[in-house]
Fold these 2 entries.
Entry 1:
Amino acid sequence: MLTLFHHPMFAACRFVRLVFGEYGEDLALIEEKPWARRKEFLTLNAAGTLPVLLAEGDTPLVGATVIAEYLDETRGVLKRERRLFAEGPMERAEIRRLIDWYLTKTDGEVTRHLVRERVLKPVMPAEDGGGSPDSGAIRAARANIRQHMKYTNWLAGTRHWLAGPRLTYADLAAAAAFSVLDYLGEIDWREHAAAREWYTRVKSRPSFRPLLTDRVRGLSPVSHYADLDF
Amino acid sequence: MLTLFHHPMFAACRFVRLVFGEYGEDLALIEEKPWARRKEFLTLNAAGTLPVLLAEGDTPLVGATVIAEYLDETRGVLKRERRLFAEGPMERAEIRRLIDWYLTKTDGEVTRHLVRERVLKPVMPAEDGGGSPDSGAIRAARANIRQHMKYTNWLAGTRHWLAGPRLTYADLAAAAAFSVLDYLGEIDWREHAAAREWYTRVKSRPSFRPLLTDRVRGLSPVSHYADLDF
């Protein structure tokens, strides 16, 4: 069994857990406090970022896209119609564009900021940057959510899954990001029917179950978080 | 011939140009003002980011890593010992980690900020965010350069090329970032002999020549910028 260093409220870590879940492969989880810069962890990844996968031979693989490409090369190619990636270079490029959209762009404009202010800062020691949330940062992140919802709604309304006719990494990356925001009660699903229908489909998959039981200290999820008919 | 929408001082765009150069393939360049959010450009890439490659069939490919993976799948696999990627999944993961290090981490901690403050703001209209550079942002970015130089010096002192025995995407990503910083005179090479020796080797390659003749309006490069024996 491989080991993942993760944080339960980081979209990129949730994405990797979903991929393992879809491929039916067990994964040992080690929760890492990303602000602690633990020495043993830094020897695995000098950048101190999450996720890090200890792959075959305990080689650390750093970052969601690096891990996803590795898993496709070592698992996905053998999965036939259950492969979470496409065969053709153009279709692969589209899936990669969407992984990057949700795990880099959405993260940098929305997710990461809300997680830092609402989840991490209240439990971080003051000397590591903990303390009261910055309401300006929260407001700025919230102002950006709508654009990402609209874009997802457009994709979900145009295609069966976000990157085309099949479930791919793109859906798992997007759902990972939205599941974090949904936990925090930051998403108004009513205005985005196509996105909601798509998210319900992803959320109903067995791979999603472990994410729906995640809880963070001192912060309960919004009431519909684990509800499959929200 | 394919077309690249780029900015001459963006590391990720330089990286793509270096890859085309190494593969001996001509590339049409269209310089894009990233702050202008030109309508025709946004139809190619709703995120408005650079680089964007118009690939076969004029399909837009967004982002340096997406483009690099596409070029490997459509060109690299045929290049034998001139391939800029490795064969094995682990070696590929290491190359991807380093692309991400230089084009995301170094960019987010150093390069992007110095380019914004020193290159873009002086020529941007005030209503798009132009104006005087923010000296605090410049100071913060400069404080981070040393760590990236030290890490590169360690890699270059341990391996022949940054990801191992052969020239790969990792070298081109790192050299793209350093070439931008070097243009701006932000690098003190004297303290980092191994990094300097490595950079001299990359800089001497024919693929690098077009980058050494790049000039941006109102800002000349540091005197040794195009000097192969600096």
Entry 2:
Amino acid sequence: MKRVGLVVAYDGTNYSGWQIQPNGITIQGVLNDALTDLLGEKIEIMGASRTDAGVHALGNVAVFDTNTRIPGEKISYALNQRLPEDIRIQLSEEVEPDFHPRYCDSEKTYEYRILNRKFPVPTERLYSYFYHYKLDVDKMREATSYLIGRHDFASFCGTGAQVKSTVRTLTGIDIWRDGDIVTIRVKGEGFLYNMVRIIAGTLIQVGNGQYPPERVKKILDACDRSVSGPTAPAHGLTLMGIEFFD
Amino acid sequence: MKRVGLVVAYDGTNYSGWQIQPNGITIQGVLNDALTDLLGEKIEIMGASRTDAGVHALGNVAVFDTNTRIPGEKISYALNQRLPEDIRIQLSEEVEPDFHPRYCDSEKTYEYRILNRKFPVPTERLYSYFYHYKLDVDKMREATSYLIGRHDFASFCGTGAQVKSTVRTLTGIDIWRDGDIVTIRVKGEGFLYNMVRIIAGTLIQVGNGQYPPERVKKILDACDRSVSGPTAPAHGLTLMGIEFFD
């Protein structure tokens, strides 16, 4: 028996998110089926991040246990042959038997992409949120200064989430414009349900002038979801990668 | 009666190209139907570039004649409401009654995008050609020096095309790498059938070391399609824009 780790990229457009569920096709479900088929034994993968329906990933991480004699690093090639083209393994390798990507210390990087121009661009529609009103990136950046660090992010936690604590550490937020695309890159050691999308929705309210940048401090202090901005749509969000610490 | 010009962006993935045809859904057909429906009169648009099935556009240009009293610049908004989300008008405006985008002097800009890395990236699969073997961008750039200018491009013309002359003028080719994406940007006053895709397919053969850069000169001189590289896949190609001269 060995444990194999996978780095998984996917286009979330056609999936009901990562986590397996009775109704709807999920990334986890498709991976379980393809691995079970490939290895001839029942495989159940454990993922680092249970991304929501419609969210994309370049580098989600998952592990599974197997008795196969196929070397860990070869599994990526064989598995990609059996996966639909909107899921692609980027790396496979044998890992320590006790490595679990959800319970190890790690830093995740997400990017939220906004297409900020007068008319939508069809070739961008699946991977960015189209937003018509002009965004002031400098003001958005100013607002992020209140979010970086260790805080109670209750105002940025989607309702319905059951967590013991809403305290999390954001290690960095960068925002930049490249042509018509405004990217918000968020790094943190853990995220609450919908946290990045609520941060993005709130920063958009700053960028369009609805909220002054310093309002974000008040929103954070309120610990109340009802005072922050809307949850930005799923399709603008991509889990870029996860770095694990020893 | 007035003539209205449109700048049209589309994701070509689900279309049988620009030009209307008996079988298959085309950009031109969808635009004709949406305009006819919007304006209450039979509309037939004339396009600048009849892009192939699967090719994308950020700025194709088309014109049509209409008796509507809707101002030209307002048509874009009303038309976008009636179009599927993979076609979006970027600009509409009244133009001279004798302006025809196919027969005016113009310069077209195309980009061919190659995803050059070990494994495919799902979120790039619709808008770039995945190519596994490492491409040497410097060699590709060296090869382009033979192509720029006025030449007989018979070696870069898809078979089945009926044209009086295969002489065309390429005004520029730039190639650059940004991370894993290699972009070939080609500008010219006119293009032969599949010309940009055959140039891309030939430059890929240079980039992978199959052809030395100077082979491109011999290919050009041969005026023979059979000696150039393969036609690169349609989905890597985007018509970026068209500039018209007086």
